[in-house]
UniProtKB/TrEMBL annotation, chain A:
Coiled coil: none annotated. It comes from Denitromonas iodatirespirans. This is DUF3526 domain-containing protein. It comes from the Bacteria. InterPro entries: DUF3526. The keyword Membrane applies. The keyword Transmembrane applies. The chain crosses the membrane at residues 20-39, 131-150, 171-199, 211-232, 244-264, 439-460. GO terms for molecular function: ABC-type transporter activity. Keywords: Membrane, Transmembrane, Transmembrane helix.
TrEMBL record, chain B:
This is DUF3526 domain-containing protein. PANTHER family: ABC TRANSPORTER PERMEASE, ABC-2 TYPE TRANSPORT SYSTEM PERMEASE PROTEIN. The chain crosses the membrane at residues 21-40, 153-173, 204-222, 234-256, 268-292. Keywords: Membrane, Transmembrane, Transmembrane helix. The keyword Transmembrane helix applies. InterPro entries: DUF3526. It comes from the Bacteria. Pfam families: DUF3526. It comes from Denitromonas iodatirespirans.
């Protein structure tokens, strides 16, 4: 009862105070702008992507009669779908490409990172609802709550409150509830609007998963804001004056929002180094040629690839052997690179216990389907499509071994063969995948929230 | 004379106070640590980049020497040529075997700012293959790190230096007014302007020394090429720029103080200004710029590339179904009197790449135009936030900005054309590559953007930062006359 009384009084006071109007209003405006930008981006990209993907396959089917290996050089394009929740949290989208050209011989990387088409301003950050909530959200909580306890202490009302026999737990709960209510008043209508836009942008067959993801995202931010509320109340309860509380909280916020993420990412790179482009390519090339040499030696007993020692009518077989030998090497190298990225991120997710931004960022983009794990899932699926295409082609070439002696590329496949290559269909993995991949971030965020809660409870005044 | 003496008195007194309450020392030490950390990261990364490039150039030289040596052995009959790696075959040498490295060298001042260097490559391997195949490689970097940004000196200066300044001067006058000391001070023969100036100078000079002199000294000690006269001039320009940015925040703090509100209000005004100018404005500006000069569609580029490739495959379908006569006539892989029998299939590949290049040129140019348009908008709208101008200027002085990369891409365009022009007649007419050709083939020679452009750029940015400094100082001066020394 006392809890609710405290909460109600505090909430009404907050509504009357200009702070909610100004700080809250600005945040809401930014969030609305971010939602509009996200929605507009997605609408523009998604329809074009779907059309391009269909066109690509139609052109593949309708291509002229040609040697299958030439068709493999033409290849196929696959485009990464933008998940519906990307309008809320685009995650790493600006920094990874969305287009893959599947060609013969080598695994391609996803090209065309949007950030390469932007100016240096991009590096200040990307306007999205997630950015506003993660970076500016804590500031809003600070502005609304820095004097929640310290202010009462200054005005002497804390003494009166204590004299009523309010327990620390009741005080904390009341203050926290009122802050949560203020934030809810501001943010929940926006959450509903965003959910509406997300649902509108989701194809009917994926709606179920999308709703679950929306729910998970809501929980994620609820947890993040709870952490912030507890942290603010902890400092407000500990500080002698509201000025000290404000300065301390601002210092914590600045460190957490700007300094720590950069420091953590640099530290993680030191700890789990990833190769430079040059190193990666050199190692891959070396391993590929060693593996190819071994495969050619063991299958055909020759030293040179594509040399005169192997009759042309066995080149289809050679293509198959060559490709298969490459697959394991590619898997090893890309796997190692991607694991290094994942390790770097995981280390930072654990850092989320102390810097909640790191945990919420990882969790939010995982749930939105815009994190590296989802990107990797797509890359693997696309490479699988390339291999399917390659294997079908080599197989076809074995069956149509060269009839004309040295006229190696005289054989031409036609539409029936093109149709044996299936279209690329990719469905993003369900929420379960995202949750499995992000358990560290979940744990870290929960731990951070509990830690902040305990700190707040300890910092609550016992006597005035 | 008297004014100067009182001013010096204020400076001396204020320094004593600040040293005694340890806040000045604490802020200075913290700033120095952050500056050194950021600089260390920058130095480390530039050194790594430079080593990588050096290693690549050595490797390229080795490849060339190898090719020449192999060609000599083949001509002497000591080695049998291979079909897909033959130093005499112009279609192979121009395509991949002899591909040339085009490098954008890092500048002596590179450690000052990462800029876009973790995103945009500083080298490309140029061959006659179409540009879509080699121009869109990017440096390997964890996207998460790209999103977080790097802890470099530019970050420390753009983001954190203003905070240090605000922390030092949010209560420049308000504290003494609140404590009632200001009243006493003003009863002395001391002008308010001398007081404000003296207090500002005590905070400004040590901070500036740490933010500009310290990195400059470290750079001069560790990177000998910074000691060249032109680089020293650029370094001086950089210091001036940093000073201007610091002055902006000091002027803002002084102006806020002269409005005569409480310390708490000043602190909130300053932090709000920081959030607005450093955090929010650049992000909004980015959205605005992208909306005003939107990037053409990459999906359309991919589709276009594929379509022209298909057309090429159709056009040269006959050439592609080539004979591989060398399998039973290996002597075809040998040059005969300066001629080389370029297999029709390889010729077809050359032609397809040439045609694709030709067709997508317009699309690629649209991307470059759009990016240049965005950059022009950033330059024009940058005055909305000194942080944006400062950030852009730092990257451009360090040579890691988008503009220098555009300049690099234009040079690659030219070089790519030159390379193709060298190989086209050789591939088409079947002219064998000779050992001597390896030293006369086109080489990429980097041309720095004209110095005058850099200087003009720097001057413009300095102006863009000094202008708001002047406005804020003017405002502060006006308030100075109406300032009341007792809290109202």
């Amino acid at each position: 009862m006392k809890t609710l009384l405290i909460a109600r009084r505090e909430y009404v006071e907050c509504l009357r105070d200009g702070r909610l109007l100004w700080a809250g209003g600005l945040t809401v405006l930014l969030l609305l702008a971010a939602l509009a930008v996200g929605w507009q981006n997605r609408v523009a990209v998604e329809s074009e992507r779907t059309a391009a993907q269909q066109l690509d396959y139609q052109d593949w089917l309708a291509q002229a009669e040609r040697h299958p290996h030439d068709a493999a050089h033409q290849g196929m394009h696959v485009f990464k779908p933008l998940p519906p929740l990307a309008i809320v949290d685009p995650g790493i989208t600006p920094y990874v490409g969305s287009t893959l050209w599947l060609q013969a011989h080598r695994q391609s990387e996803v090209k065309f990172r949007p950030a390469q088409d932007a100016t240096g301003l991009q590096r200040f950050g990307n306007l999205s609802m997630a950015w506003v909530l993660q970076i500016l959200g804590p500031l809003l909580v600070i502005v609304l709550g820095f004097n929640a306890i310290a202010g009462e202490r200054e005005q002497g009302t804390l003494r009166q409150l204590m004299s009523l026999g309010v327990r620390p737990r009741q005080l904390l709960a009341g203050k926290a509830l009122s802050l949560a209510a203020s934030l809810g008043t501001l943010l929940l209508p926006l959450a509903v609007a965003a959910a509406g836009f997300v649902a509108a942008g989701t194809p009917p067959e994926a709606r179920g998963d999308t709703w679950l993801r929306v729910l998970a995202l809501l929980l994620t931010y609820a947890l993040y804001f709870s952490t912030m509320i507890f942290l603010v109340l902890a400092v407000s309860g500990w500080a002698k004056t509201s000025r000290i509380a404000l300065v301390t909280l601002l210092a914590i916020w600045i460190a957490g929002a700007t300094l720590m993420p950069r420091a953590a990412s640099d530290l993680a790179r030191e700890w789990h180094p990833s190769p430079t482009r040059v190193e990666f390519n050199r190692n891959l090339d070396d391993d590929l040629s060693a593996e190819h040499a071994r495969a050619w030696q063991s299958h055909f007993g020759v030293d040179k690839r594509w040399g005169a020692d192997l009759p042309l009518n066995r080149w289809g077989e050679a293509l198959q052997v060559d490709d298969q030998a490459g697959y394991t090497v590619l898997d090893r190298h890309f796997g190692k690179l991607w694991n290094a990225f994942a390790d770097q991120q995981r280390m930072q997710e654990w850092g989320g216990v102390l810097v909640p931004l790191l945990a919420v960022r990882a969790l939010s983009m995982a749930v939105a389907g815009t994190d590296f794990a989802h990107h990797r899932d797509f890359s693997v699926a696309a490479e699988q499509q390339r291999r399917t295409m390659q294997d079908l082609i080599s197989h076809d070439l074995i069956h149509h071994a060269d009839p004309l002696g040295h006229q190696h590329f005289s054989y031409k496949a036609g539409p029936e063969f093109w149709a044996t290559v299936p279209p690329f269909t990719y469905a993003a993995p369900p929420l379960g995948f995202a949750l499995r991949e992000s358990w560290r971030a979940q744990l870290a965020l929960i731990a951070a929230c509990l830690l902040a809660g305990v700190l707040a409870l300890v910092a609550m005044p016992r006597r005035a | 004379m008297n004014e100067i003496r009182t001013f010096l008195l204020v400076v001396r007194h204020e320094s004593r106070v600040l040293v005694a309450d340890r806040s000045l020392v604490a802020v200075m030490v913290l700033t120095a640590i952050l500056v050194l950390l950021g600089l260390y990261n920058g130095l480390d990364a530039s050194q790594q980049r430079e080593q990588t490039i050096a290693a690549l150039l050595v490797k390229q030289d080795e490849t060339r020497v190898n090719n020449v040596a192999r060609l000599r052995r083949i001509m002497a009959g000591e080695e049998a040529p291979e079909p897909f790696s033959n130093p005499a075959n112009p279609a192979l040498v121009g395509g991949g075997q002899g591909a040339q490295l085009a490098v954008m060298p890092s500048l002596p001042l590179a450690p000052l700012a990462f800029g876009q260097s973790d995103l945009l490559p500083d080298h490309y391997r140029v061959s006659y293959r179409n540009k879509a195949t080699f121009m869109y490689d990017a440096e390997i970097e964890n996207p998460w790190s790209l999103l977080s940004g790097r802890f470099d000196l530019a970050f420390v200066l753009v983001y954190l230096l203003p905070l240090m300044i605000c922390a030092m001067s949010y209560n420049l006058l308000s504290a003494e007014r609140e404590q009632g000391i200001l009243k006493l001070l003003m009863s002395q023969p001391l002008s308010l302007s001398a007081l404000v100036l003296g207090k500002t100078v005590v905070r400004l000079l040590p901070l500036l020394a740490i933010a500009t002199l310290l990195p400059a000294a470290v750079l001069l000690a560790l990177r000998p090429d910074v000691r060249a006269p032109d680089q020293l001039a650029l370094l001086a320009g950089w210091s001036l720029l940093t000073t201007a940015y610091a002055l902006f925040w000091f002027a803002l703090a002084a102006a806020a103080n002269l409005f005569g509100r409480s310390s708490a209000t000043n602190a909130i005004v300053l932090i709000a200004a920081w959030v607005g100018l450093v955090l929010v404005a650049p992000v909004l500006l980015n959205v605005l710029v992208a909306a005003l000069s939107p990037a053409p569609s990459r999906i359309a580029l991919a589709t276009e590339t594929r379509l022209v490739t298909i057309q090429g495959l159709n056009r040269y379908n006959e050439l592609l179904s080539t004979d591989y006569r060398y399998t039973d006539k290996p002597e075809l892989l040998l040059p005969q009197q300066g001629r080389f029998d370029v297999p029709a299939r390889l010729r077809a590949f050359y032609l397809i790449h040439r045609d694709v290049d030709h067709e997508i040129e317009g699309v690629l140019a649209a991307f470059d135009r759009q990016l240049a348009g965005q950059q022009a908008l950033v330059d024009r709208l940058g005055w909305l936030s000194p942080a944006v101008i400062f950030h852009e200027a730092l990257a451009s002085l360090a040579g890691t900005g988008a503009r220098r990369h555009q300049h690099f891409k234009r040079q690659i365009d030219d070089f790519h054309r030159e390379w193709r022009a060298y190989f086209e007649p050789r591939v088409q007419s079947g002219t064998a590559i000779q050992a001597a050709d390896y030293s006369t083939m086109p080489k990429f020679v980097w041309q720095e953007a004209p110095r005058a452009e850099t200087v003009r750029d720097l001057a413009l940015r300095l102006l863009q930062i000094f202008l708001p400094v002047a406005v804020l100082s003017g405002l502060a001066l006006r308030r100075l006359r109406r300032f009341s020394v007792v809290p109202t």
